[in-house]
Structures are given as structure tokens and as C-alpha cells.
UniProtKB/TrEMBL annotation:
Record gene name: ybeY
Source organism (scientific name): Chitinophaga horti
HAMAP family the UniProt entry points to: Endoribonucl_YbeY
Subcellular localization(s) per the UniProt record: Cytoplasm
Protein name: Endoribonuclease YbeY
Cofactor requirements of the protein: Zn(2+)
Coiled-coil spans in chain: none
Major localization listed first in the record, in broad terms: cytoplasm
Length: 141
């Protein structure tokens, strides 16, 4: 299992990086999904917009784009792109710390790779509930 973090055109400080990596591995284990490899790429709005346009044909800014790369559904290999610009703006809009919002988005990407969706209202409610569960476990438990 490998959890990796990379930065493209941005700089972000991840507190307790090793603890976070271990927690992400635990998230996958709790969800019953085998994790082989996940790469988080922290980037700018413009870079993620280009990815959104090129691969998803969406011409909008977003905080996260997740790609499942595994040839088999039993094992997860994925890339998660996170816009630091969006995370900062969303943290401000929702009156939460940047660190809290960053971790919410990190867990959101992992949950997508575990099979959670957020297209319908019901799916979105389940995703938010899972995000909150993992935020609590990471920060409070």
C-alpha cells in the first residue's frame, strides 16, 4: 500500500503527513476496499480546470477530480487532484479552517475510490455523512 502526496504549482503544508497516510489506509480498510496505490496531487485552480476540461469535458472550477486507475475493481489504484485555491475559498465560505476543509476533500477523494458517489441528493447526503465520520475519527477520536 502506498499513499503519496505531490504538489504541482502550489505549496501546501500537510501536518502529521505520516499519520494522515496511515489514516487514509485505515479508511480504505474500514470501507472494505483494498488499497494498492493512491497519489494526491495538490494544484492550482487553473491546472485542475484543465484536467476537468480535458478528461471530463466539464468547463467549471472544482475542488477535486478523482481517477480510478486500477484494472480490477477489487484493488484501488488512483489519482486525486485537489485545487488548493478551491479548498481555501470553500473553507472561507463554510467558515471552517483551511486544514479542516483540506482533510474533508482528501477523505472525499478516498471515499470516491471506495465506491461512494455524490451525483444524486441521496448519494451526496451519504458522502457528507462519511466525510463527517472520518473527520471526526481523524481530529476528535
Amino acid at each position: 500500500m502506498a499513499v503519496k502526496f505531490a504538489m504541482h504549482e502550489v505549496k501546501v503544508t500537510l501536518k502529521n503527513r505520516n499519520r494522515l497516510k496511515q489514516f487514509i489506509e485505515e479508511l480504505f480498510a474500514r470501507e472494505g476496499q483494498e488499497l494498492e496505490d493512491i497519489q494526491y496531487v495538490f494544484c492550482s485552480d487553473e491546472y485542475l480546470l484543465g484536467i476537468n476540461q480535458q478528461f471530463l469535458q466539464h468547463d467549471t472550477y472544482t475542488d477535486i477530480v478523482t481517477f480510478e486507475l486500477s484494472p480490477t475493481p477489487e484493488v484501488t489504484m488512483g489519482e486525486v487532484y485537489i485545487s488548493i485555491d478551491r479548498v481555501a475559498e470553500n473553507a472561507n465560505n463554510y467558515s471552517v479552517s483551511f486544514d479542516h476543509e483540506l482533510h474533508r476533500v482528501i477523505f472525499h477523494g478516498a471515499l470516491h475510490l471506495c465506491g461512494f458517489k455524490d451525483k444524486s441528493k441521496k448519494e451526496e447526503e451519504k458522502m457528507r455523512s462519511k466525510e463527517n465520520e472520518y473527520l471526526y475519527l481523524y481530529f476528535e477520536a
